[in-house]
Amino acid sequence: MRTTLTLDPDVAALLSQEMRRTGATLKPTVNQLLRRAFAGAPGLARKRFRYAARPLGLRPGFDPDRMNQLYDQLETESFLGQRRQEMQDKNGSRKRVPRKVASD
């Protein structure tokens, strides 16, 4: 079968290296590499990824579906704390700035 194939530069370089290593021409080199790839030659096949589900170990009453909300609250508190510190530093005083926490 005749076909035109456009190779990426890195693939073309690897193919040229393989041709120099084996002393073979383009056609046999490409055919051999494709046969190995399609046959799942050792070293080319990927090992199957396996995982085991485990309990999260969350405390009773903790809703894992609301973790994003918790993160948002913590991020907001951190941001506000930084702003309070900047305001205190800017004013040169240690005057207490009221802290407001969002609630559900």
Key features of this structure:
104 residues; mainly alpha; 3 helices
Give a short summary of the structure.
The chain is an all-alpha fold.
Report what the structure shows.
By secondary structure, this protein is mainly alpha-helical. Helices cover 51% and strands 0% of the residues. It has 3 helices and no strands. It has helices at 9-22, 26-39, 67-91. The longest helix is centred in the last third of the chain and has 25 residues, at 67-91. It is elongated. The relative contact order is 0.05.
Distance between the termini: 68 Å
Number of helices: 3
Provide the low-confidence segments as ranges.
Answer: none
Largest sheet: none
Global outline: elongated
Strand content: under 5%
- What is the mean pLDDT? 83
**How many runs of DSSP E, i.e. beta strands?**
0
- How would you spell out the order of helices and strands? HHH
Supply Rg. Answer: 31 Å
Helix content: 40-55%
| Helix and strand composition category | mainly alpha
List the helices and strands and how they pair.
Elements: H1 9-22, H2 26-39, H3 67-91
